[in-house]
Amino acid sequence: MRMVDIIAKKRDGHDLTTEEIQFLVTGYTDGSIPDYQMSAWAMAVLLRGMTPRETGDLTLAMAASGEQLDLSSLPGIKVDKHSTGGVGDKTTLVVAPLVAAAGIPVAKMSGRGLGYSGGTIDKLESFSGFQVERSREQFLRQVQEIGVSVIGQSGNLTPADKKLYALRDVTATVEAVPLIASSIMSKKIAAGADAILLDVKVGSGAFMKTLEQAETLATAMVQIGKQVGRKTVAVISDMDQPLGYAVGNALEVQEAIETLAGRGPRDLTELALSIGAHMLVLGELVTDVEEGRARLEEIIRTGQAVEKLAQMVEAQGGSREDVYDPSRLPSASLSLEIKAAQDGYIAAIDAETVGHASVLLGAGRLTKEMPIDLAVGIVLAKKRGEKVRAGEVLATIYANDDHLLQQAARELAGAYTYSAEAAMDQPLIYKTIV
Ligand code: URA
C-alpha cells in the first residue's frame, strides 16, 4: 500500500477501505508517513468528506493508536461525558458526583482549559491538595470504592489524534467535520467509554458558532457511536452567554457546589439534570429521562450529591471541609462592580468576550504552558433577558492585579447589548440527537 495512492483516491472522491485507513493511521503514528502526506490527505478529507463507515474506521484506528484504558473491572456500563467547551461550563463538576451518587461508575479523564474555554482539571485544583495525577491502580480503586474519580489526561492515549490535531491546526483543516468527530470520539473510546453523552455547545462562546454546524457535528458523532457499538447521545446546548453566573476556576467550583446542594442557577441545574438523566438511561439504571431526572432531583434534595463530591475531593488528597465551606477556596484580593450603561433589557452577553475578560484576569491560559490564577474571574449578576436600570450592577470582577482588573472591566463592558423590549427567550437545549 502507498500513501500517495490513498491521497489520490480520497482526492478523487472515492471511499477508503478499512485497511487503507488503518494503514495511514498506523504509518502516521510510527512516523513512516510524513506530515506533508498526512496534510494532503486531511485537505482531501476536508474537501471530499468521509462516509460514516470511513469515519468509524478512523475513530477506531486512532483509539487503537496508543494505550487504551481497561475499565472492565468496574461494574456496569461506563458512561462518559464530553463537552465541546465553553465559558463558565462547570457541568462536569456537577454531573460527575451526581450520576455517581445514582450508581453510574464515573472514571473520567478531563482536560485543562485553553483560550477562553475552561477545563475541569484546573477547576478541581481549586481544592487545596487535590491530586489530578493518579496511577491507573489508584484511579480504578477509587471508582470501585466511592464510585467516582476525575483525573487529568495521562498516559499515551490516542497519539495519532495528538499528531493529527496539531497538523490540522497549521494546515487549515481543523474544520473538517469527520476529523473533528473522530478526534473527539477516539479519545472517549480510548478512555474506556461503553456509552457516551456529548454536550455540543453552540453560540459565541463555543467552537461551533451556528446551530447548523453544531447539529452536523453532533450527528456525525452519534453516527460514529452507532458504527462502533458505543451508544451515544448528543445534546446541543446554548453557549451564546456564559453558563450559570460564575466564570473562573474557584468561583465556578463554588457555583457547582451550590448546584449540587440544590441552590444553583436555573440554566446550570437544568443542563446538569438533563445530561445526568441521559447518562442514567445510557447506563441502563432507568428506562427514561423523566425517571432519571426524578432520581437525580432526589439525590440533590437529600444531600447525597454534595456528599459524593466531598468523598471524591477527600479521596484525591483535598479536604472535604472545602466542599461544605467553600469560603475556604482561593479568593481574590480585589473586586469591582460593573454597572449597566443604560436602562433596558439585556439582549445579549457575548460569551466569548466574557471568556476573554476572564483570561485577561488570569483565569485562563493562552498557551498550554501558562500558569493560571485559580481565584480570579467574573460573577454575573444578571443574565440575558433581564431588565436593568442604568447604574445597576451587571457583574462583579475578582482580580489580584489592579491593572488587569481595569483592562478586564473595559473588555467586559463590551459584552453587553441592550434592547428596549424583552427579547424572545433562547432555548438552553436546542436539540437532543440519539
Ligand atoms: N476538539 C477535539 O478534541 N478535536 C478536534 O478536532 C476539535 C475539537
3D architecture notes:
- The protein is of the alpha/beta class and 434 residues long.
- It has three domains: 47 residues, Transferase, Pyrimidine Nucleoside Phosphorylase, Chain A, domain 3 (Up-down Bundle); 246 residues, Pyrimidine Nucleoside Phosphorylase, Chain A, domain 2 (3-Layer(aba) Sandwich), CATH 3.40.1030.10; 89 residues, Pyrimidine nucleoside phosphorylase-like, C-terminal domain (Aldehyde Oxidoreductase, domain 3, Alpha-Beta Complex), CATH 3.90.1170.30.
- It is 46% helix and 15% strand.
- It has 17 helices and 13 strands.
- Strand 4, helix 10 and strand 5 form a beta-alpha-beta unit.
- Helix 5 packs parallel to helix 11 and helix 5 crosses helix 14.
- The longest helix has 18 residues.
- It is globular.
- The chain starts with a helix and ends with a strand.
- The structure holds uracil (URA).
- The site of uracil has 5 residues, from helix 9.
| Number of E-type strands | 13
Our Rg estimate from Cα atoms comes to 22 Å
Residue runs with pLDDT of under 50 for 5 or more positions:
none
Hetero compounds: uracil
- Percent of residues in helices: 40-55%
| Overall structural domain count | 3
Oligomerization: single chain
Distance between the termini: 37 Å
Shape, principal axes of CA atoms: globular
CATH topology of the largest domain: Pyrimidine Nucleoside Phosphorylase, Chain A, domain 2
Average pLDDT score: 96
Output the strand order for the largest sheet. Answer: 1-4-5-13
Give the amount of beta strand, in percent. Answer: 15-25%
GO cellular component, one term: cytosol
InterPro entries: Glycosyl_Trfase_fam3, Glycosyl_Trfase_fam3_N_dom, Glycosyl_Trfase_fam3_N_dom_sf, Nuc_phospho_transferase, PYNP-like_C_sf, PYNP_C, Pyrmidine_PPas_bac/euk, Thymidine/pyrmidine_PPase
Cofactor: K(+)
Function: Catalyzes phosphorolysis of the pyrimidine nucleosides uridine, thymidine and 2'-deoxyuridine with the formation of the corresponding pyrimidine base and ribose-1-phosphate.
